[in-house]
Amino acid sequence: MKKNLLAGLLASLLASAAVAIEPFTVRDIRVEGIQRVEAGTVFSYLPVKVGETMTDEKAAQAIKALFATGFFKDVRIEMDGGVVIVVVEERPAIAQIDFVGLKEFDKDQLIKGLKEVGVAVARTFDRATLEKAEQELKRQYLTRGRYAVTITTTVTPLERNRVAINFTIDEGEPASIRQINIVGANAIREKDLLAVMQQKTGGWISWYTKDNQYSRQKLSADLETLRSYYLDRGYLEFSVESTQVSITPDKKEIYITISINEGERYLVSSVKLAGDLTLPEEEFRKLVKIRAGEVFSRERLNESTKAITDKLGHQGYAFANVNAAPELDKEKRQVAFTIFVDPGKRTYVRRVNITGNSKTRDEVIRQEMRQMEGAWYDADRVAKSRERIDRTGYFNEVNVETPPVPGSIDQVDVNVNVAEKSTGNISIGAGYSTAEKVILSGSISQSNIFGSGKHLGLQINTGKLNRTLGINYTNPYFTVDGISQGFDAYYRTLNPTSLGYAFQSTSWGGGIRFGFPLDEKDMLNVGLAIDQTTIDITPITIATPIQYIQ
Q1: Are residues 279 and 391 in the same domain?
Q2: Which residues contact 189 (CB under 8 A, 6 or more apart)?
Q3: Which of 30, 60, 33 minimizes the C-alpha distance to 47?
């Protein structure tokens, strides 16, 4: 007969409440009450195995460990002779999650957010986790300025120990910005500062632009805009002291107060270059956009460091580090900059790896590459390579990455990943007229035939009056230098006698053409074509056209 030794909640595991048992050797272990959880999972959390000694301490450890998994809402350990029986009651699983009244967000976006806090289909249902999910949903709405949102959660039990969760949402109206105050703006008018911000108090088209709807993300962006605005005008020590957002009791209007410290306006006293320049200093001086005597501008300073970094990148220094260090003279309100240049080691390209091209041949992509294997890395050539591959029209997306080679400090790989798209086109048409009866027409073209990068097109028209057969072909890389070659051929008959015209004509012709690249984007096209047209007259043809034909 079973004896109930330890049962109930984790709190019952305290020594004062536990029933002391004599240690015994475990002959067998059974698990009861499981539905979805595997028995092996339960066994893996038990601190005792068959043949080992069971004690009060091990029983307490077992219950604690099983509760900690989150799979069970009740755990009991019973004993029958030398058999340990683990009786569990599983928490229900979440079978579905539904939303009612959802308009502001995409459902998949919220499902993803709930999953991050532990609420998702097929996961174990937990009331505490559900409360976190509700708070996460409210937080998402608050970031959109919807302070009046209310969320009602309904949990419906289903068969097989499952539940359905329904979130009924009353989104309410978004709170609108009633007033924005900028405290501390002296050198620059508050009106000018408000004009550069995304969020505004609204106007007659705010119903469409929604620029008067409060958003925490937009406010953060506006604060950064203000900082950039001041830094680009010489206020090197500008700072945002505080931001206060208050809402009216009816949760419909927002008041924003931004407190700033403008600081002093600084002029640039000097700009120096230091470090390993690798190139003549004048080469870098030409790239510096900020000059002594000018008002400091962070934008122009950033443009200068970026231009120097790009210049080094074109010379093979893929990991160049360029930083500007300021030296402030607060008495004179001047700032001197030293631009430190650390080019690092010149970097070479080990391999060009191409992936994603299930149809297009590697050579078609490689012939567009301007960055070669074994050559030093050139950021400009890498960018041109990506642009040329994208311009072929064979791919929806072209991504280029340049990761460093593991274990090497002067080598990178160029990884080109493409997403192919359909490059063929088929057009079929049919019509009917009293003069021509049934008319069939069609065309087929393939810009990347068999993945070779070559173009082939065919056109056909079977009308009684006008019949046409045409073909065109282009090889964009007829030579390794990028000279293209193509040809066109056609055969056409015109028979308008059924319309009262007294002649028929037959035309055939063709041509050959070549394209010579002038630079990366421009090409000179030349060609030669021939056309032969024969006109046949009928007995009713009047004299003048006959004389013209002869």
Answers
A1: no
A2: none
A3: 60
Would residue 371 be called left, alpha or beta, if left means φ above 0 and alpha means ψ between -120 and 50 degrees?
Answer: beta
Query: Could you tell me the two tokens for 507?
Result: 């035309």
Count up the domains in the chain and report the number: 6
Whether residues 240 and 313 fall in one domain: no
Query: pLDDT of 139-159, one tens digit each?
Result: 888 877 788 888 899 989 888
Which amino acid is located at 245 in the chain? Answer: V
Tokens 């501008």 found at: 297
User: What is the CATH number for 104?
Assistant: 3.10.20.310
Answer whether 108's CB lies under 8 Å from 97's CB: no
Alpha-carbon distance of 423 to 445, in angstroms, equals 8
Q: Judge contact between 141 and 102, C-beta under 8 A.
A: no
pLDDT in tens, 21-42: 678 888 888 888 877 777 888 8
Greatest pairwise CA separation for the chain in angstroms: 130
Question: Which alpha helices (DSSP H) does 369-456 contain, by range?
Answer: 379-391
Of 170, 201, 235, the residue that ends a domain is 170
Whether residues 491 and 531 share a domain: the answer is yes
pTM over 0.70: no
One domain, residues 183 and 164 = no
81 and 99 belong to one structural domain:
no
Kindly report, residue by residue over 313-349, the tens digit of the pLDDT: 888 888 889 999 999 999 999 999 999 999 888 889 9
d(CA 107, CA 104) in angstroms, rounded, equals 9
Q: Are 441 and 543 found together in one domain?
A: yes
Residues 6+ apart with CB under 8 A from 136: 113, 114, 116, 117
Residue 454 vs residues 98, 147, 364, 446: alpha-carbon distances, Å: 51, 59, 9, 8
> Quick one: angle between helices 216-231 and 127-143, nearest 10?
50
Express the helix, strand and coil content of the chain in percent, nearest 5 each. Answer: 25, 40, 35
The boundaries of the domain holding residue 535 are 424-549
Give CA–CA dist 531/129, Å, rounded.
80
DSSP letters spanning 108-155: HHHHHHHHHTT--TTSBP-HHHHHHHHHHHHHHHHHTT-TT-EEEEEE
465: Cβ contacts below 8 Å, ≥ 6 apart: 435, 436, 494, 495, 496, 498, 499
Are 191 and 280 members of one domain? no
List, as own/partner pairs, every contact residues 305-313 make where C-beta atoms lie below 8 angstroms and the sequence separation is at least 24, other chains included. Answer: 305/339, 308/284, 308/339, 308/341, 310/379, 310/380, 311/279, 311/283, 311/284, 311/287, 312/278, 312/341, 312/343, 313/377, 313/378, 313/379, 313/380
